[in-house]
Amino acid sequence: MFKFLFSAAVLLLSLSSYAQYSLTGVVRDERTHQALTGATVQLAGTTQVAIADAFGRFGFYKLPAAEYVVTTTFLGYAEASEKVHLTADAEIEIALAETAVLTEAVVVSATRATDKTPTTFTTVGKEKIRQQNFGQDLPILLSWTPSVVTTSDAGSGVGYTGIRIRGSDPTRINVTINGIPYNDSESLGTFWVNIPDAASSAQSIQIQRGVGTSTNGAGAFGASINVQTNTKNDEPYAEVINSFGSFNTRRHTLNFGTGLLNKHWVVDGRVSKILSDGFIDRASADLQSYYFSGGFYGGKTILKFVMFGGKERTYQSWYGVPESRLKNNTEAMFTTAMNEGWNEEQTNNLLNSGTRTFNPYMYKNQVDNYQQNNYQLHFSRQLSSAFTLNTALHYTPGKGYFEEYRYNDKFVNYGLSPVTIGDSVINSADLIRRRWLDNDFYGFTYSLNYDRDNWNVVLGGAWNRYDGDHFGEIIWAQVSTVPSEHRYYFNNGDKRDFNTYLKTNYQVNPQLNVFVDLQYRKILYKATGIENKLNNIAVDEQFDFFNPKAGLTYAVSDNHQLYGSFSVGNREPVRDDFVDNPGRTPKHETLHNLEVGYRSKGKRHTLHVNYYLMDYKNQLVLTGQVNDVGASVRTNVDNSYRMGVEVEGLVKLSDRLQWNANFTLSRNKIANFTEVLYDYGPGFDEYIAVERTYKNTDISFSPNVIAGSSLSFFPFRNAEITWLAKYVGEQFLDNTSNKARSLDAYFVNDLRIGYSWKPGFVKEINFSVLINNILNEEYESNGYTWGYRGGGEEYRENYYFPQAGTNVLGMVAVKF
């Protein structure tokens, strides 16, 4: 490997030896002198484009002596051009002025935070996204940002993936795409696998930690992720990206755009195909996705239609690997098989599988199969120099199923009578079932922006409706008398969500800014029918939430800022809280969030230090309690909190060396937690719920230490070598702080190598290699636990999701 990398470096160095002159510089705000990270700098009449880095710096190299027109653009600022007569290496400073000219920034401006917003956020630009995008799911690309922990069911980052921020699970993370809600309305979860390769069409991604600013859709109860898709590109382009790597992973992407047509029209598109066998046995993924947009850009009007979606077929790998298999303990594996009720074939699979790659599913079509399409129509109009109106219509249909092979399943579970064949009465048999979801989500969003003098005011909101059918069918049974395509349950969920908010930023003086954000949200939720355990569903709930937020930012100087805010967030229970807990109405959850921080940006460094306190009332947690058909039930706990300090910084150690690092130290506690464990008695003929109370116990899946690091070395122009490191502290699988039910701390290191070549016959060719887990750390990033008492013994089963050892992805991207 070393010889290969050294030889490649020598070859690439020879390609860069024809440099003549360089043109470097910095882009700043004309008024505040702040560096404008992400500004686009172009040499007019050429294909040379540079993106300003975290310090606002950019560079062009290997330029022949000539006169150049340097054109600079940045959302929310007037375009600037200046001539440079280049006869030697030169450095320039570009100052951009804020402008009222309508740009696509208004599409997401209502739900995004800025430097004037007293909350905690990280924005990831297009270039950073591209560098890390080898075809893995979007959460994996964000794993290096502060307080983030990610996981992959298949262990390789392709397929079903998850993300936690400050310990908050995906159901507590609000996700919007161009300001449109993306969370599933009933579960409040986010399924990135339904829009694979979404990162290839992302202009920027902002993560707000804590309650954040008011947004649309589900309440941000731990964080929010705001994705903006591609913005207008004036020049035509095409790009072909191919990635190949371990576990037979392949990614093929075609991006294209017309550039500006007839001074007003732009069309962009993308099609993608991602395939992987996965690290876990049979954890394959076959993912297809697309993105198309067409926009009209007038002087004061933007009308843009966006459509994107995907179809996924993933082999199920969500069961996890039992601890007995990880430890290769044969006796414990037999106990696991007994506790799970597995037959001989399933037990042999457990005993003979790979230690870390076990998958209990063996049926060839044990797959999740789902297709989703997203349609958005955005309209923005500059009504005057102070007022801008934004509206959007959206519609998302989705339909799919997951298929399961069931061994010796009881007919009564499907509403079927026993089958008599001759003298035999058969009460159970092997069968195959599909559980379907067929849903529609539609609505509109709006915002009216006022920006004049010292005032910036946004009146915004949304109305959305979700209509989802849940049903299950038997498609085959071992006993032929069982009717094919027998529908054994059907229910419908109908959820309507309305919110309106008023956000105000008032600049009291050059140093002090006051922020007030008031939101009202109303939810109507109905669910009727029969659920999959054949219980009746009858939910008819209404929630009215008031979510106020207020704070201050104070500019100590041009490059130093203090901020503080206090916010209240409320969140409704999810579908399972009602369905699995019939006859008992769960309470909604409330979060009081304090954020206090310091931001600094110098010529060679940025620093962000933040203290947070997230105090919960009636947080819903798993206690081990189950209902009468064995489904897990969540219950409210009175008092719990998350408290921590986050530090994020970037330092330019030299012209060739740059270090970006972050760490989080936190405490995550429940004041009083009651675990429920069921005792079946000495002879397994009883059923008694035993309660155990714990005080000041740790919240599950909430590590006290999270740290990330990105050390980049630039050996020569257009080349980059980056060492990525991530440390995640110990996590508990339940809320009892028991080390026997925990995930060990892990420290994972990746190496990314990239080179950009501009040969002349195409605009650019990018070569990249990503070596994941280069030190071959054996670790598990997620898991779950369950247990019971019986026969005088206590049994516990822990399940884990191992991640892949050292694996490689290579990528070639050609721009035309």
From TrEMBL:
Residues 115-223 form the TonB-dependent receptor plug domain. Residues 341-773 form the TonB-dependent receptor-like beta-barrel domain. Keywords: Cell outer membrane, Ion transport, Iron, Iron transport, Membrane, Receptor, Signal, TonB box, Transmembrane, Transmembrane beta strand, Transport. Its main location: membrane. GO terms for cellular component: cell outer membrane. GO terms for molecular function: siderophore uptake transmembrane transporter activity. This is TonB-dependent receptor. InterPro entries: Beta-barrel_TonB, Beta-barrel_TonB_sf, CarboxyPept-like_regulatory, Plug_dom, Plug_dom_sf, TonB-dep_rcpt-like. Residues 1-19 form the signal peptide. It is a multi-pass membrane protein. Belongs to the TonB-dependent receptor family. It is found in: Cell outer membrane.
